[in-house]
Amino acid sequence: MNLVKLGVSSTLNQYDRGLGNIMKLYPVIMCGGSGSRLWPASRPSRPKQFIPLAGNRSLFQETVLRVAELAKTGGRLIVVAGVGHRPWIIEQLEEIGVEAHVLLEPEARDSAAAMAAAAAWTEREDADGVIAFVASDHHIPDYVAFQEAVRTAAISASEGRIVTLGVKPTEASSAYGYIKPSGKGLSDVDRFIEKPDSAMAAEYIGAGYLWNSGNFVVSAKTLLSELKAYAPAVEAAARAALPTGSNAFVEVLTQAFLAAPKISIDYGLMEKTRLASVLEVHFGWSDLGAWDAIAASGEGDTGLHIFEDAEGCLARSSNGIMIAALGVRNIAIVAESDAVLVCDLSRAQDVKRIVERLKLASPQHLDFASPDPQTLQASGQRLADWLRTRALPTWATLGQNSNGAFAEMIGLDGRKLSTARRARVQARQVYVFAQAGLLEWSGPWRRCVDDGVDRLISDYLRDDGLCRTLLSADGTPLDETAMVYDQAFVMLAFALAKSARCSDASLEIRARRIREALRARSLPNGALVEGGDEPYQSNCHMHLLESCLAWEELGGDVGWTELADQIVGLARSTFIDRRGGFLREFFDADWQPAAGEAGRLVEPGHQFEWAWLFARYGRARGDHAAVDVARKLFGHGLSGVSEFLGTAVDAMNDDGSIRSRRARLWPQTEWLKAALILSELSHDGERQAYLDSALDAQGALWLYLTDGGLWRDKRLPDRTFIDEPAPASSFYHIMAAFRQMADTGVSNEVDLLTSLDLK
């Protein structure tokens, strides 16, 4: 790139020699606009920046890749967009492997407010930060030339100027606004001119005017200061709209943003400020604003098409539609599933007139049809139907032998598999069918529970009343270890069986015997040492707390309350990080975080699961502090929800970074349970936020469930699943989530599995 041609060589050298070491650049991608001249491909719910118009990547992705390099000075890439475009942004960032901080507008208030919000965020992070505001839908093939121009403009911006990039025109276009510079290279702006007609555009080019690219480089403090002087309501609303206390990479601006007047940056500031400069640039640039520009790029044809004696034409089709053209010249044919546009390319700018007519003649074609919004109630109805007619019948037959032993897994093709059998699975399945009975399922729940409990007692309980860990497929003991985890689930199974009024009257006695044996093994700090490779852990205590709360709710003796208090105290003092407020998994013998990666592990699913338990505990005791702990744990769990995957991932590190993007089924159910119970303990807007999160969790759960009453367990970062049998252990999580739906009031009646009379 010839920098002298840009007129910027001396200032770029200045950047390289000195300021480059201290100036941080914050590229801000502005995702506003609907691209109406590119109808029917571009519409409000999927505007042109998210469509591949000139190549395989979308304009937004091309912009991200073009500006991401600029943030490597220590700044941060920022994206500003409307809340409706959140899925597009997250997915397309993930596809190209680039991270960004995303600010979402609750409602579009035009460019001045959007830029002010980004400036306010940047200033909060870096008082001296310099921002490069770029449009998300411009086509600039020469990345290097663009980056050099921005770095040059940043020098002047750091000194208090507002620099816009003015492109040297290549034709007299009426599609762009113009800038009259006061000189060559980097100079003051004499005036901004709106889009002229073709004749006036030719005069402007002769007079040395530049195209207004709409890209600005300015320090955050300068922009906010100038807005405070010329558009104070915009500046005030943007500052007030910044979310506080969030470490999420996607943030929604608060409702204070709506107080900002709807005004563009040109009218609101650039036509008034005395700080406007323009940098003349010569790189190729187009806003690809109409179909003629797409055709001129040479990369606009997509989909199936056949041309016969057709010249200078553009064809774009989707959803397998074939376009065939014969004997035509210079036309665009754009076919979407619900609309087709045929236009003379010389009239491409007039497509917006078609859009105006559609507003009256056929408004449903202004945007793509939206699926009916899902609700908690509708999803609850669907889950109840799935449980009643698919999952419970499948696992009550294929999933349990005639002697009462539950299967560890069922193949996705419905085959029964012979494997070793864990105590925790036998206990969990008793829990599942006892809950089904409490919910008035009309199937053979009582037989499943009675036979399951009998087999649990006869095969798994040792002579000392504790539960062995593992049996062979034929029932031979393979591992006599009395895992705390397994004892917890046996006690939970006995509690649910008793609650469902099943036959064995000794269940409470057996549960108390296990409890007292565990209490006798407690360390001075109240912890229990687990068997296996990780003796000092939080997880086994979590399920022990769950069983204590279940027996408490049945009116069990004071021992359950005492053990629950003991575990909650241990979680508060030891398991939950005192600084971060998140829950750790593994510890050393002194109950400090374990060395190495084990000590840094944070599982989003367990943040949710402990949050659910703390909320139950706090509500039962009127302990508001415990509920506050639940809310904080829930927030940490949300940090592990992948925006791209739409699921809670398996593992994070204690610094908040993602360790594993794989996502198992069970964290989705724990997310759902925690969101629902916290909605019960919250008010107004906070309650709605938890309910919205619960709806997201339901959507995540449905990704795993199959029509045959089975499920997939492990979802990979590419959104595919590991091909393996459905593990029975997941059913406990699914049923517990459904039980919480009933308790939260998703249904008017408790017997969700029969009446399904949903609100």
Explain this structure.
With 759 residues, this protein is α/β, with parallel strands linked by helices. 43% of the residues lie in helices and 14% in strands. It contains 25 helices and 27 strands. The strands form eight sheets. The chain has a five-stranded mixed β-barrel. Strands 12-14-15 form a three-stranded mixed β-sheet, with helices on one face. The termini are far apart.
Number of strands: 27
Helix-residue proportion: 40-55%
Beginning-to-end CA distance, first to last residue: 65 Å
Number of helices: 25
Shape: elongated
Query: What is Rg?
Result: 31 Å
Largest sheet: 5 strands, mixed, barrel
**Proportion of beta-strand residues:** 5-15%
Q: What kind of oligomer do you see?
A: single chain
Give the key terms.
elongated, 27 strands, 759 residues, disordered C terminus, alpha/beta
Protein topology:
Blueprint: H1 3-6, H2 9-17, E1 25-30, H3 59-67, E2 78-82, H4 86-96, E3 101-105, H5 110-125, E4 130-135, H6 143-158, E5 162-167, E6 178-181, E7 186-193, H7 198-206, E8 210-219, H8 220-230, H9 232-240, E9 250-252, H10 265-270, E10 276-281, H11 291-297, E11 304-308, E12 314-317, E13 322-326, E14 331-335, E15 340-344, H12 351-361, H13 376-397, E16 409-410, E17 421-422, H14 423-438, H15 445-460, E18 470-471, E19 477-479, H16 484-499, H17 507-520, H18 539-553, H19 558-575, H20 596-600, E20 601-602, H21 604-621, H22 624-638, E21 641-642, E22 647-648, E23 651-653, E24 658-660, E25 663-664, H23 666-680, H24 684-702, E26 714-715, E27 726-727, H25 729-744
Parallel strand pairs: 1-2, 1-4, 2-3, 3-9, 5-10, 11-13, 12-14
Antiparallel strand pairs: 4-8, 5-8, 6-7, 6-8, 7-10, 14-15, 16-27, 17-18, 18-19, 20-23, 21-22, 23-24, 25-26
